[in-house]
Write a structure and sequence with these properties.
The complex is a heterodimer of chains A (about 325) and B (about 300).
Chain A (H helix, E strand, L loop, with lengths): L1 H4 L6 H4 L15 E2 L7 E7 L4 E2 L6 H10 L1 H14 L10 H20 L9 H23 L1 H4 L1 H6 L6 H27 L11 H4 L6 H26 L3 H14 L7 H4 L3 H9 L1 H13 L7 H24 L8
Antiparallel strand pairs in A: 1-2
Chain B lengths: L5 H9 L7 E15 L3 H5 L3 H9 L5 E15 L3 E5 L6 H8 L7 E6 L4 E4 L10 H11 L4 H15 L14 H13 L5 E5 L7 H17 L2 E5 L3 H7 L2 E6 L2 E7 H16 L3 H14 L2 E7 L15
Parallel strand pairs in B: 3-7, 3-8, 5-6, 6-7
Antiparallel strand pairs in B: 1-2, 1-4, 8-9
Helix pairs in contact in B: 5-6, 5-7, 6-7, 7-8, 9-10, 10-11
The chains are: A mainly alpha (about 325), B alpha/beta (about 300).
């Protein structure tokens, strides 16, 4: 066994004169001489010390790496919120102006022309909650679906857990929603129906149920996150899906009772049941109950929304993580 | 005789001691790209219905490009490996594969620590000021906010931008942008450093500063890969060189030897001496050698050694 794997001194590195200032490490490599082909250097490599690059870490490790990048995710989100309207005259004011104009359009079309407001108490509040909250989910998922494609240059320059990109999109849309949320609270307080015609004491105006709203919004955030992760991987694989996501969002918009009430249009019990399983319908319904109608959301609502949110978040995380190695060639 | 340490065990099996200093091992890597092409010949091979469909939805026929075809190499601590080759020979693809930014169609890359690719095309947000981009870029590389604050001054100094650091990046000249990107990437201080043409950016004053920073980085790094068109740069700064041609490895050896041969060949190509160049390429290929990476798994001593042997 001696003749073939003996180290040879003929490697070019050893033969060449070295630059004077740095000593060059000389390695001798086992050499195999082969008939009719180039000689073969056999390089033994310690498989316990070296690890494959760009391999998908276990899920727990992946989540830890993601946590390590939290500063990047937040910094990226804040930077993009700050610059999203640069170059326009009104700048950041568009963060609240565009949802407001959206709501105005629906108010004119559905409230004044089509009269879908009949039978709904405090239609303006009903509409504002519907439009503003649904916008948060639809803009998050649409932008998140494109996040890997939009961040292609980042993916090609740095190695980081790729879920940072959809997460940064969710963070950006959520941050951009904060001024809208403040506006929503102000408008809901201002547009209390004048029917009672008496000044409601603040204690009743701001009932303890308002404290449930952040909990519902947190569940909505989890829902957004899960959907975004699923959409991001699917769109990275087939870019055409970015168009489909927009269509699905519009379909969902009409199925979530954003600017009308289902009670008037649907009397088929099975169909009504399907609508009531819709998580976005539940989000809007629960927030309206808390902020407008002074009702505590039913345990059924909580159960339906929580199972959608937690389920989609877990499913989305695992689904995205399993595709981790494929995002480099988007 | 039971081996007392992993290094000892490897020596017993292979008769070879330097195994533990391996930093990067590239094992038989193949990369293919499907790229759109306006080539009429490629189009003619496509079946007619597909051709009609392509025309309707405005899709170009694609051709298969082999960017890398079976590359194997091993780099050790203290080595500075230069990669030479013409445009499109697969140099930058090789670096991206080693950095783990792209997945090869076949083969694996093993590394001791996460390699960092130092390219001048790192993503930046043009709307943000240089200062904000420094912060964002450093965080993207995995630095903590404290580390960013600590290295901020150094980055600005290296980039030499002065007060322009507080202006949006879209107002920068391309040279200024490249300088800032280089300065940000250089702040990472990685163990395995991959440099893609970074030395060629900026004016003379910046080049001197960047070369100085680069040699510092190389001293700290376990090993370095440098891609450059300029074989002279490779000759001066590397200990070893790899010559790629059409995705194949022509030669792998001492920097001086390989770079000289490459320059002589490239000169002949440039002068239109096609036949002579072809002969030189053939000679160089014949002088080179292939590499076979054998991964030893020390946790399972009962398994037979997997490296090639003849008796």
């Amino acid at each position: 066994m001696s003749g073939d794997t003996t180290p040879t001194g003929t490697t070019p590195a050893a033969a060449q004169p070295t630059p004077a200032d740095e000593p060059r490490p000389v390695f001798t490599r086992p050499l195999l001489v082969r008939e009719g082909r180039r000689p073969l250097h056999v390089e033994p490599v310690d498989g316990t010390v070296l690890r494959p690059v760009a391999s998908r870490p276990p899920l727990r490790e992946y989540l830890r790496l993601l946590w390590d990048r939290r500063h990047f995710i937040v910094a990226d989100a804040r930077a993009r919120v700050a610059t999203s309207n640069s170059g326009t005259l009104l700048g950041r004011a568009w963060l609240v102006l565009s949802p407001l104009l959206d709501a105005a359009v629906y108010l004119v079309i559905f409230g004044l022309l089509l009269r879908s407001s009949r039978g709904i108490d405090n239609f303006i509040g009903y509409l504002l909650i519907g439009v503003f909250l649904f916008r948060l989910t639809s803009s998050t998922v649409s932008a998140g679906a494109r996040s890997l494609i939009a961040g292609r240059s980042l993916v090609r320059s740095f190695s980081f857990p790729r879920a940072s990109l959809p997460l940064a999109t969710v963070a950006r849309q959520t941050l951009a929603f904060v001024p809208t949320l403040v506006l929503l609270v102000v408008l809901v307080l201002l547009t209390r129906p004048a029917a009672e015609d008496t000044w409601t004491p603040p204690a009743e105006l701001l009932s303890w149920r308002w404290l449930l709203v952040p909990v519902v919004l947190a569940l909505q955030l989890a829902l957004n996150l899960g959907l975004t992760l699923i959409a991001a991987r699917a769109t990275a694989r087939v870019p055409d899906l970015a168009q489909v996501v927009g269509v699905l969002m519009r379909f969902w918009l009409y199925g979530s009772a954003v600017f009308f009430s289902f009670d008037r249009f649907i009397d088929h019990p099975t169909l009504l049941q399907v609508v009531e399983l819709n998580p976005m319908f539940r989000v809007l319904d629960m927030v309206r109950d808390c902020m407008l109608y002074g009702q505590t959301p039913t345990w059924e609502s909580w159960a339906i929304l929580t199972s959608w949110s937690v389920g989609l978040l877990v499913l989305g995380t695992v689904f995205f993580w399993r595709g981790e190695e494929s995002y480099g060639s988007v | 005789m039971a081996p007392s340490s992993p290094a000892e065990a490897v020596r017993a099996v292979t008769g070879y001691a330097a195994v533990t200093s391996v930093q990067v091992a590239v094992d038989d890597v193949h990369v293919r790209y499907r790229t759109p092409s306006t080539d009429a010949a490629a189009n003619a091979e496509v079946p007619r219905p597909v051709r009609v469909l392509n025309r309707v939805i405005g899709r170009q026929p694609t051709v298969l490009n082999r960017a890398l075809a079976g590359i194997s190499l091993v780099a050790r601590s203290g080595e500075a490996v230069g990669v030479v080759g013409l445009n499109g020979s697969g140099k930058s693809t090789l670096l991206r594969i080693i950095a783990g930014l792209e997945r090869p169609a076949r083969g694996t890359v093993l590394a001791r620590t996460t390699p960092v690719l130092l390219g001048v095309n790192a993503a930046m947000l043009p709307e943000l000021t240089g200062q904000q981009n420094v912060r964002l870029g450093c965080l993207a590389m995995g630095m903590t906010p404290e580390q960013v604050s600590a290295s901020y001054k150094e980055i600005v100094e290296l980039s030499g931008l002065g007060p322009a650091i507080h202006q949006p990046m879209k107002t920068y000249s391309s040279g200024m942008g490249a300088r800032l990107k280089f300065a940000i990437a250089a702040a990472a201080n990685p163990q395995i450093l991959l440099i893609d043409e970074a030395l060629a950016t900026g004016d003379a004053a910046f080049r001197e500063r960047s070369e100085e920073r680069m040699s510092q980085l190389r001293e700290n790094a376990g090993c370095t890969f440098l891609v450059s068109h300029a074989a002279k740069t490779i000759e001066e700064t590397c200990t070893r060189a790899i010559w790629l041609h059409k995705g194949r490895l022509v030669m792998d050896g001492g920097a001086y030897d390989v770079a000289q041969k490459y320059r002589w060949w490239a000169w002949n190509v440039a002068k239109g001496e096609t036949e002579k160049a072809a002969g030189l390429l053939e000679d160089a290929f014949g002088e080179g050698h292939d590499t076979a990476v054998r991964v030893t798994d020390l946790y399972d001593p009962s398994a037979p050694p997997r490296h090639a042997r003849r008796d």
